[in-house]
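Let us practice reading a record.
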Amino acid sequence: MKKRFLIYLAVLSLLCGCGEASVQKGGADNNTDTTPVAAQTKVPEEQQTPKTPIEGGSITVGITQDLDSLDPHVAVAAGTDEVLFNIFEGLVKADEKGVMNPAVAESYTISDDAKTYTFTLRDNVKFHNGNVVTTEDVVYSLKRCAGFTEAKDPKVLVESALSIVSDIYAPDEKTVVVALSEPNTELIYYLTCAIIPKDYKDQATAPIGTGPFKFVSYEPLQSFVIEKNNDYYGEKAHLDKVTFKIFANVDSAFMELLAGSIDLMTQLQADQCKQLEDKYNIVGANYNLVQALFLNNDFEPFKSAKVRQALCYAINRDEINQMISEGQGTIIGSGMFPGISEYFAEDLVDYYPFDQEKAQNILDLTNYDKGLTFTIKIPSSYDSHVATGQIIVEQLKKMGITAKIETVEWSTWLTDVYRNRNFEATIIGLDANLAPSDILKRYNSTAKNNFINYNNAAFDACYKQAVESVNIEDKKNYYHKCQEILTKNAASVFIQDPAQLTAVKKDLEGYTPYPIYVFDASKLYFVK
């Protein structure tokens, strides 16, 4: 067990006798306000008022997850998308306030019946190889993401939300039309899928996009390097070069942070940040993730809603939040993170207050009244999820429930847990774009990414109504009902939107949290 986890568990034994911690609710409006939510993490005054950028220079960013693909239409991991955000763009892309702005497209319109999206392409947008983006490239890219291409690549991650697309075509050299078989006002959030060259075959080894940075090199488990795109149509990056140095775990990366050889790193914990304050500014924000103890609903103990509900009462989420990030995360009660503020069901946050006596009473009504044993598979590259698991193990032990931690490599987790669903429980953070359907679709019984095997006819029906609703108030009500079903049926133990603590070198500014899981290197710059 790592030294830091031992410290957590020692603190846990003290906290358990102190009553329930207060719920922290920072960041509930995160898609309109990116003010740091870390009440105890202060951003120095000089960072709050950006200075004049010094153009040029290079930085090293520490990451603890290798990339699962350089092809943006194949990549599955959120950590990969986070990095590739700098190379690729869609017709539109979100800004730091969660607003969808034109990107490769100059403008777009949505028909009154929400069945036709019409895009006008921006003039003279160039790929990184110097070729101008054409409507053929755009149509090809969208069709590839929607699974329309004649020779379907089995590796391509077909976006299920695009299944309602009936046609994608270009009526002229400036216009692309996306026609739908049914109304959908949220599709714009899925049209961030990367626009790539139609006839280019080497995306997996030498990716080409339209973004503010272009690819230089990639060494698996070592580094991913990008450089400034001087032909970028928009506001150009300040830095000349960014190297993402890949570490096997947070501990090894943290040693280099202490030495000052890394300029920026996210995914840190509060105790680590305290050791860095002399060399780094610490920026706090929400991660925009749904962290949960995800339960395989097809695994015998967790087929029972009562067992799942018992675990919801048995786990002290406030304590986890306090111990992992000193209360700077945001407690959640269902399958949506608060960054999607317009649809987030805040009234469900306290549906399962910590009450182990009530948890035991519920277990007494099941076949597991004499004890429950299960294994939690957690990717070893995510320190905070492993730490969360250690705390949960200690909490459940007090009820006679035996939970065992099995740490696995990220690639193993993707295969065993996410794709093959070969697990009993796991702890992970799920990301999404800003469409409420994107974070909730994984609970639809037929969804390919429904890795917890959740099956609820009422949820399926309500989700369908939510997606198809054109009236905004109806849509809100249906999505709220979807979250309510997940909560009351205890699809899993929803914990928090974790605090994202980022260490930024004191001579580096412009780090900008987003309401989606991306890292924007184009805004970073050095100051004297």
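A brief commentary: Residues 472-488 form the longest helix (17 residues).
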